[in-house]
Amino acid sequence: MQSTRVIQDDQAVRDRIMAAALIRFRQYGYNKTTMAEIAADCDMSTANIYRYFANKQEIAGLCVANCIQDRIRCVEEVASRVDCSASERLRGFVLTLLQNCHDTWSKDLKIHELLLFITSEHPEIVHDKIARLQELLQAILEYGVSTGEFQVEDTVSTARAIYSSIAVFDIPLSMNFYPLQVFRARANEVVDLLLKGLSYTGKLQRYEEGSPP
Amino acid sequence: MQSTRVIQDDQAVRDRIMAAALIRFRQYGYNKTTMAEIAADCDMSTANIYRYFANKQEIAGLCVANCIQDRIRCVEEVASRVDCSASERLRGFVLTLLQNCHDTWSKDLKIHELLLFITSEHPEIVHDKIARLQELLQAILEYGVSTGEFQVEDTVSTARAIYSSIAVFDIPLSMNFYPLQVFRARANEVVDLLLKGLSYTGKLQRYEEGSPP
DNA sequence: ATAATGAATATTTAATTGAATATTCATTAT
DNA sequence: ATAATGAATATTCAATTAAATATTCATTAT
Predict the structure, then answer these.
(1) What whole-number distance in Å separates Cα of residue A146 and Cα of residue A141?
(2) Distance separating alpha carbons of residues B62 and B15, to the nearest angstrom
(3) What distance lies between CA A82 and its chain's CA centroid?
(4) How many CA atoms lie within 13 A of A106 on its CB side?
């Protein structure tokens, strides 16, 4: 019991430090946040933080991972709404991803900096996120197949293809190019086109050389 | 006649300067290339360059625009091959775009730096490029409709949607994430899916609530 | 023993300034 | 008049160092 008690206490301290750090990272960014400030916010010495974290970057990495988790939870929610068709789930998925991406870029600029910095050191964080999004897409596809909405042979490769098609809406850098409103319209156009492909029945119009005018 | 003569001479000098500049930009990058070096390569004084260009950035901007032009010409060629079906043209278009993008990133790193720098000052260069690519896509679509390969109502909005879907293959930054081989596979998957959407006949499977098991 | 600290050390950032480079301009050559 | 130049000026870059910050550790408190 004693050891459990201690581990829980440890986690509480870790959480307290991370919460304080995140507030400062959000407001001032990674570089302008000092370990001394984080420590002061937690009413402890700077040195004591190092009992709980290896270094500043570890704290930032965990903050970023948490943010990504939160973002993914939004998407998961939309991707599994019981009152929605598979098509609606797919559209919701894409628009939510876009909204998240835009928010990170424009509202949460400091977090975006942090994300850029951390993911350049730990690309596996991004890969894990993409893998999770593709799982969600696959689930939407399987749901669509089960309801008869979609005709899809290979849900894994199709989920990959869909993610590639909508990746541009999940890359904060691209948010520079157009206002959100334009991106929404573009995302909707892409979803419309994808939905046609997904409900494709296989009755391909054969191309006959020279027959049309 | 005299004035024409002079203008032609002017253009010849401009071309000579730009050629010399491009060689240095390619090898050493924008910052490590000095106006003095460019001038020496052209056997003229530094000051004389300013008779032909407003400043160093203008020279770089024109070099970049030329490079983009060259890249687009490759794509144009593929997009209008007489011996190819519309589907083949579309696939060629995407794979060529990807190849260009990858080359710029990995082989022509210095030019990529330049491109990044110039397009941050002149986003219209990128917008023009995207507009031209969308025109080419539209031409492929119209060709596909004319041969009966594609069923597309609105070629303009569909061309936009296709560009959005494949934009990730046209963003040098993304070349970091996977090797070219993987990107090629992804691009092919996306094209496969898009082609299904394009040849979609409109006979949509209706989703009937609760009817499947 | 565990948690925490203050002080010492190592590393990073920020300010300074001299050197390199871009740009301008008065003057010269054609 | 047009083209070109050398020298003057403005701007940017890079090396230097002082200050700030991250990290470690010996010591103290619980």
Answers:
(1) 9
(2) 10
(3) 21
(4) 13
The residue behind tokens 């191309």 is A207
Contact residues for A1 (Cβ-Cβ < 8 A; gap 6+): none
* CATH architecture assigned to B1-53: Orthogonal Bundle (1.10)
Q: How far is the CA of A18 from the C1' of D20 (A)?
A: 23
B32 CA – C20 C1', rounded, Å: 11
The CA distance from B94 to A191, in Å, is 19
pLDDT of residue A211 exceeding 50, the answer is no
Q: What is the pLDDT of residues A168-193, one digit of tens each?
A: 999 998 998 899 999 999 999 999 99
Topology of A56-198 in CATH? Tetracycline Repressor; domain 2 (1.10.357)
Chain-centre distance for alpha carbon A67: 9
Cβ–Cβ under 8 Å, residues A193 and B161: yes
Q: Take residue B128 and report the two structure tokens written for it.
A: 């023009």
Q: Does any CB of chain A come closer than 8 Å to the CB of residue B140?
A: no
Mutate to test the interface with A, among B189, B203, B208 (most CBs of A within 10 A): B189
Could you give the dihedral angle defined by the CA atoms of residues A176, B76, B169 and B87, in that order, rounded to the nearest 10 degrees? 130
The domain spans of chain B are: 1-53, 56-198
Mean of the per-residue pLDDT values for chain A? 90
- Please give the Cα distance from B185 to A38 (Å, whole number): 46
**A169, amino acid identity:** F
Chain D: nucleotides below 7 Å from protein CB are: 2-7, 13-14, 20-26
Give the best-scoring range by mean pLDDT among B101-110, B143-152, B200-209.
B143-152
Residue A141 pLDDT exceeds 90: yes
Taking phi first (over 0 means left), then psi (-120 to 50 degrees means alpha), and beta for anything else, what does residue B81 get?
A: beta
